Amino acid sequence: MYTIKEVAQKTDVSEHTxxxxxxxxxxxxxxxxxxxxxxxxxxDIAWVKIVKCLRSVGTENKAIKKYIDLCIMGxxxxxxxxxxxxxxxxxxxxQMRELKKQLDMLDYKEKFYQNLIENNLKDxxxxxxxxxxxxxxx
Amino acid sequence: MYTIKEVAQKTDVSEHTxxxxxxxxxxxxxxxxxxxxxxxxxxDIAWVKIVKCLRSVGTENKAIKKYIDLCIMGxxxxxxxxxxxxxxxxxxxxQMRELKKQLDMLDYKEKFYQNLIENNLKDxxxxxxxxxxxxxxx
DNA sequence: AGTTTGCCTGATAGTAACTCTCAAAATTTT
DNA sequence: AAAATTTTGAGAGTTACTATCAGGCAAACT
Lengths: 138, 138
Known about the structure:
- 2 copies of one chain form a homodimer.
- The first copy, chain A, is mainly α.
- Chain A has a single domain, classed as Multidrug-efflux Transporter Regulator, Chain: A, Domain 2.
- Helix content of chain A is 63%, strand content 3%.
- Chain A has 5 helices and 2 strands, in the order ααββααα.
- Chain A has helices at 4-11, 15-23, 42-56, 61-73, 78-119; strands at residues 31-32, 38-39.
- In chain A, a hairpin with a 5-residue loop joins strand 1 (31-32) and strand 2 (38-39).
- The interface between A and B is large, with 52 and 52 residues.
- Chain A binds a DNA duplex through helix 2.
């Protein structure tokens, strides 16, 4: 059994956020000791990890709560949960593509500045420099 | 020259957000027509794209404003801007790795449910089913 | 024994970055 | 010219934290 501090370190989720998530009903089986202090089991930590996963790909807290509730309801909701995971995966893949695109743009920008620095050129794209120039759009 | 609606469609950033960004000082060269209506040039659209890029990798608006201000200041800030782009790229790469990790978890979950459905098994991980079981942690 | 230290608690306030609503202009469509 | 659509700014509302604070409890020093 782990205290909130240990779980925060283990999962890289702040204590504040863990309490917030607990209050949001994300850890329905989380127990307390006789002094009202939260004690996380390994299972609770697994819940933290799945919540963290869903959050990190942009799932809203309301939707996460719904997923948790489906879990609690047991076997009859397996198909529904399966579909949620599938949709989430698709969303994550889309984010991957988007992130890749932005990384390409950053790459382009980096080279742009590199060239500028190496050749001591002016930043002709900057509209402040009133020079005829091509658009910087990648 | 484009109206805000056209830019919203072109860049996939909502009109609301474009106005919010404009008010935040992200498009310092954005012009208006005689009736106070914003008219975006190709350059302004390039600004929208770089702001979108920085935002999408988690750069705070305050930091974006700082970058924009550096751009306005001209050549003397090229090295500083270069460093910002480099750091942003590193951050984006880190996000890529994190997203990959979460995608692996979703893959694992998907297969877990698939197996459950195909074999009509019980969801032994769900703490609701009081069965001895291994942790679900990936 | 007393007190300090440190972690934990809930309640509440504050923050970032939108997102929405609205009413009044401006523009476009019919 | 009337109707429908856009654009505008101001301001309220939302989400998901994040920080602050006072108070409780327990173990460690003095």
